[in-house]
Design brief:
By secondary structure, the chain is an alpha/beta fold. The protein has one domain. A 3-stranded parallel β-sheet has the order 3-4-5, with no helix packed on it. α2 packs parallel to α3. The protein starts with a helix and ends in a 16-residue tail after the last strand. The structure holds flavin mononucleotide (FMN). The site of flavin mononucleotide (FMN) has 7 residues, from β4.
Length: about 130
């Protein structure tokens, strides 16, 4: 990477409505760390995302179940129960709090990768869920 490329990597970029302070984006990375039972985003996940948050940065969350019937493996977080939504809210708030002194605060958020595994999903996983 030459000096010019290096400067570009750390320069702002506009992606649709979002202005990023730099171009180092966190890719979706499944960690299978959600609280069980319930696939609830927890403190360990919050710590992980907060550690990787940076000023003007962009985070895509790990694959997140949109339905109990679409789960593909144990440990992936969900986004279809109230507890899961509350868990994600804490993570989002923690990431944003890290940028509390940054003017682009309201434009910097983890973007969630939602998924439904469809036919390969394992219905048997449902028994691990809380209602
Ligand atoms: C441990 C691990 C977990 C991953 N989890 C996801 C995921 O949840 N969703 C997804 O789309 N990609 C996932 N990926 C793929 C990464 O996002 C991908 O490796 C990254 O974007 C870099 O792209 P490359 O492997 O083609 O270089 C995962 C990769 C690894 C190594």
């Amino acid at each position: 990477m030459n000096t010019h490329d290096h400067r570009k990597l750390f320069s702002p970029v506009q992606i649709g409505p979002i202005t990023l302070g730099h171009r180092v984006v966190m890719a979706p990375l499944t960690r299978s760390r959600s609280q069980q039972p319930g696939d609830i985003p927890n403190d360990l996940m919050r710590e992980c995302y907060t550690q990787r948050a940076s000023e003007g940065g962009f985070i895509v969350t790990e694959a997140t179940n949109i339905s109990i019937t679409g789960r593909g493996w144990l440990g992936a977080p969900g986004m279809y129960s109230d507890q899961q939504v509350e868990g994600w809210k804490k993570i989002t708030a923690a990431v944003r709090a890290k940028f509390a002194t940054v003017s682009r605060l309201d434009q910097t958020a983890p973007y969630e990768q939602k998924f439904h595994l469809d036919r390969p999903s394992k219905p048997g996983f449902s028994k691990h869920m809380v209602s």
